[in-house]
Amino acid sequence: GSLTPSSMATCCQGVEGVKLPVAWTCRDEFQELQGNADDLLHLWEVVGVPVADQILDTQAVLKAALHAAQKCLASLDLRRAELERQCEDLETEIQEHLQSLAAGRFAKELSQAKVLPLDPQAAALQQLLEQVLKAIQEQDQLRTDLAKACAAMGLDPSQLADFENLSPEELQKEAEKRKQQVQQQLEELAMAMGVDVADLPQDGDLGAMAAKLKELQKDMSDLKDRTLENARRCKEIWDELRLGPTLPRDAAAEHLSLARSAVVNAAMAAQVRRSLEAWEAQRESSRKEAELLHEQIRGHAVDADAEAFLTEHAGLHQEDLESCRVKLQDLKEACRAAEKPLRQHLRQLYHKTGCDTKDLEQLFRAVEDETTARARRMQLENELRRMEDYAESISVILGQREELKALVLAGESFERAAQAGEGRWVGSSKHFLEEEKFRKRFLRQYPQLRDQLIESIEHWEEGNSRTFSHKGIPLGDRLRSLREHEAVLASAKGDLSIMGILLQALGIDQDAQTGRPQPSKDKGGLKTPQSVSSIASLQSPKVGAKAPRLPALGKSNSESALKPRRSPSLKRKAMKREQSTGNLRLPRI
Q1: Taking the chain, what is the end-to-end CA distance rounded to the nearest angstrom?
Q2: N or C: which end of the chain has fewer CB within 10 A?
Q3: Eight-state DSSP code of residue 356
Q4: How many CB atoms lie within 10 A of CB 311?
Q5: Contact of 274 with 249, CB cutoff 8 Å
Q6: What pTM, to 2 d.p., does this model score?
Q7: Cα–Cα separations (whole angstroms), residue 413 to 400, 407, 409, 427
C-alpha cells in the first residue's frame, strides 16, 4: 500500500529486525545505502521537510530498489528453469547410455551429481556423460579388437556375430581369454621368425596384439614361400650341374624341395638361403668358365665343326666343361705348332740381344690367355717386329761387344795356359813368344775397342732415353768403370791376370770358359780359343743384377816383371811374370 506518516514511522522503527541476505549486508554498497538513509533522515529534520515530501522521497527510492530486485528475480528464475531442463536432459541421456554398460556402472557418480545445486549439477552431469560415452567407445573397440583377434587366429567368421550379444561382463572375460591365446601365438611366431619377444606389444592392447599377429603371419607366409622357392631352385641347379646335394649343408634344401607342405622357420630359411647362394655361385663360376671356353674354342677353331661341337657340349656340368677344356687344349696345341717358327725366332732374338728371357716367357703366357688364334699370332708378330727393330738398333753395339769379347777371351785363354803348371817349361818356348805378342796386341787394341763400344752405347742411350743392358748388365756403366782403372792396366804392361775382371764386366762367366780348348798354333799366327759364333753358349748373369764396382788395383810386381830388360831370356821373363801374377790377388766383381 501507500506510505502514510504513521506507517512510515512504524517502518523506520522496525527495520532493524528484518533479516536480509548476507550477500546484501556484506556488500559495501549496502552499507553505503544505509548511510544514505541516515543522512536523508538527518536532512529531513534539519531542513524540516514535510512528512508528505518525505513519503514521496521514500517511495522513489523503494520503487527503484524494487525494480532492480524484480529484474534480478526474473533473470534468476529463467536460469533456474534452464538448468533444471539441462540437468533432466543430461540425466536422461546418461541413463540411456548406461544400459549398454554393466549394471551399476557409474551409479555412485550419478547420485553424487544429482544432490548438487543446479549449476554445478549440470557441469557434473556433463562430465559424467563424457565418461559414459568413453566407456561405451572402449567397449565397442574391445568388440572390434576381439573380432580382429579371432579372425587372426582363424576362427569361424560366424562366431564373430556372437560378440554383439555378449554382456559387458562376458565381453571382458572373452577379451581376456583371447589375449592369452593371441599372446601365445605371437610368441610362437616370434620364435619361428627369429623376432625378439621384447618387440611384441607389451601393453595388453588386444587390437595391437591382433595387428602384430596378422603382420607376423604374413611375414611367415612370405618367408615360407621364398624358402620353398629357394629349395626348388637349389634342386634345379644341382640337377643342371649333374651334382647331388652337398650334405649336411643342403639337408634342409633337399627336404623342402621334395616336400609338398612343410613347417619352415627362420633357421631353416637361412640354411636354404646359404645353400642357394653357394649353388648360385658355383653355377655362375661354371657359366663363366663355359662362356670363356666357348669363346676361345670359336676363336681358335679353323673349321665349322666348332659350332656343332659346342651345340653338343653346351651344358654347365663337368662332363661338358671337361670336353671343352680338352678341345681347347687340342686347338691351342695346334696353334703352338703353327707358331713354333715365330717362337724360335723370338728366342734367338732375345738371346742375341741379351734381353731377359723371363719377359719372353711372360709374353708366351699372355699369348696363351688370348681368346683367338688371330690374336695369339698378332701378339707374337708384334713382339717379333719390336725385337727385330731393337736388334737392328743395337747391331753396332753387339758387333763391337763381340770383338771386345773375343779379345778378352783370347787373353783369358793365354792366362789359363800360363797357370797350367810346370809342363809349359818343358820343350819349345815358342808359346812364350806368342804370349808376348798377344800382350802387346791386347794393350794396343783393348782401349780402342772399349772406347768405341762406350761411344756407341752412349749414342744409343741418348737416342732412346734409357740405359742399355745386356743380359741384365748395364754394359756402359761397367766399361766406364773399367776405363777409370786405365792407370792400373797401363802399369800392368800387358799382364793378362786381369782377364777375369774384364770377363765379368762383359757379363761372361769365367767358370763357363774352362771347357774351351787351348789356343792352337798355326802357320798363319795365333788363333783365338773360341769363335764369335760360339758366344751364345756362354752362361749369362742374372737379369737386373747390379754391376759391382771394380776394386781398386794396386801396383804389383808384374810392373817390374814386364819392363824390358837387356838380354833377358823368354823363359826367365815368363817365370817372373808367373811369380808376379801369383802375388796379385784381384777380388771378383
Answers
A1: 157
A2: N
A3: -
A4: 8
A5: yes
A6: 0.53
A7: 20, 10, 6, 20
